[in-house]
Amino acid sequence: MNNQDIQVTKTSIILTTGIYDLLKEQIKKKKLNRLNEEKLEIELKNAKQVLNRDLPNNVVTINSLVTVKDLQTSEEIIRKFVSPQKARRKNGTTSILSAIGIATLGYAEDAIIQWELPEGIKSFQILKVSRLT
């Protein structure tokens, strides 16, 4: 499947205020490449901010178990997103500020997203989101 054939989800992302501020900080510190920075700025401009208790359970946030499908390869990837301080490869956890973490933050199940990763622009569909306890 070609990236040009993929219909990216156009809905606004939903974030808690804390995650919103964390993402703004990533832009301020120039932690992203230019393409992702521009995309994230647009997403944040249109983002809906909610209290943690009002965040729908099917939206990617910190402390989420997320299954995404790479739309080019059909590979399914499962990630446990945690805070950067708690991310440990040996525990099978991934920082919410990793490339795939930032790409999926605020999107709900079934959303299709594109993000530039080290290996190029990738398209993903979020298949399942659940909260870690």
TrEMBL record:
GO molecular function annotation: DNA binding; RNA polymerase binding; translation elongation factor activity
InterPro entries: GreA/GreB_C_sf, Tscrpt_elong_fac_GreA/B_C, Tscrpt_elong_fac_GreA/B_fam
Coiled-coil blocks: none
SUPFAM superfamilies in UniProt: FKBP-like
Pfam families, per the entry: GreA_GreB
Keywords: Elongation factor, Protein biosynthesis
All copies of domain Transcription elongation factor GreA/GreB C-terminal, residue ranges: 56-130
GO biological process: DNA-templated transcription elongation; regulation of DNA-templated transcription elongation
PANTHER family, per database record: REGULATOR OF NUCLEOSIDE DIPHOSPHATE KINASE (PTHR30437:SF5), TRANSCRIPTION ELONGATION FACTOR GREA (PTHR30437)
Protein name (database record): Transcription elongation factor GreAB
Organism: Pedobacter planticolens
